[in-house]
Amino acid sequence: xxxxxxxxxxxxxxxxxxxxxxxxxxxxxxxxxxxxxxxxxxxxxxxxxxxxxxxxxxxxxxxxxxxxxxxxxxxxxxxxxxxxxxxxxxxxxxxxxxxxxxxxxxxxxxxxxxxxxxxxxxxxxxxxxxxxxxxxxxxxxxxxxxxxxxxxxxxxxxxxxxxxxxxxxxxxxxxxxxxxxxxxxxxxxxxxxxxxxxxxxxxxxxxxxxxxxxxxxxxxxxxxxxxxxxxxxxxxxxxxxxxxxxxxx
Length: 249
Ligand code: ATP
Prior knowledge:
Layout: E1 2-11, E2 14-24, E3 29-33, H1 40-48, H2 50-60, E4 66-74, E5 77-78, H3 84-90, E6 92-95, H4 107-114, H5 120-133, H6 150-163, E7 168-172, H7 180-197, E8 200-205, E9 217-222, E10 225-231, H8 232-236, H9 239-245
Parallel strand pairs: 3-8, 3-9, 6-7, 7-8
Antiparallel strand pairs: 1-2, 1-4, 4-5, 9-10
Helix pairs in contact: 4-6, 5-6
């Protein structure tokens, strides 16, 4: 179980996350929906610990002050002070927005980088799972990631995160910029990941519509605050939420 309570993030004087409470049970799928700049990536950075790296880098270069408040717990233990690599070892792994692959490395090399902490047997078995999950990658294993389509890159990015043996997979806007047919392949991987690997997934998106059938529970974030939460059905049946986030009235 991954839990956040009272999480607040300030970039200098700008409040990017305001008192966020969130619960992701074991083997659950949670959605975080919100418009551009709502704070989705900041929340993913806070959960994964990357915010601490960003904070440290900013401090070193004398840049803006980033302040964090609140508590993050994993399996009952407070992990707020743990760095991203320490959280990754516990199984909290971020697949970042815009994929951030190593463009000059091949698909297999990108996947292998994700699995650098896994045993050889785990890495081999997970790579086989990734190829099963995304068969389109099978014929692209030796191609440089920079020469893949956006959809293929997203598949590699999810695969790379899976190679790190997550217990909680954080997917930040995995559908960004993808055509609907490719979105479908990416989103369909979520229930498979959950079922076959027993992984919890927290997924952010601007538009909830393609993702909502796959989540158990979701939070709507506006200007850094969770303005509403509920089961996917509860949110889908709310007319305001439906118009704003599902693209229908
Ligand atoms: P998008 O869908 O555009 O990725 P988002 O919901 O992920 O948006 P965030 O990227 O978390 O939103 O940004 C939340 C707010 O914090 C925005 O106003 C953004 O400009 C600001 N912000 C994000 N990162 C920084 C930073 N390093 N320094 C200053 N402000 C930042």
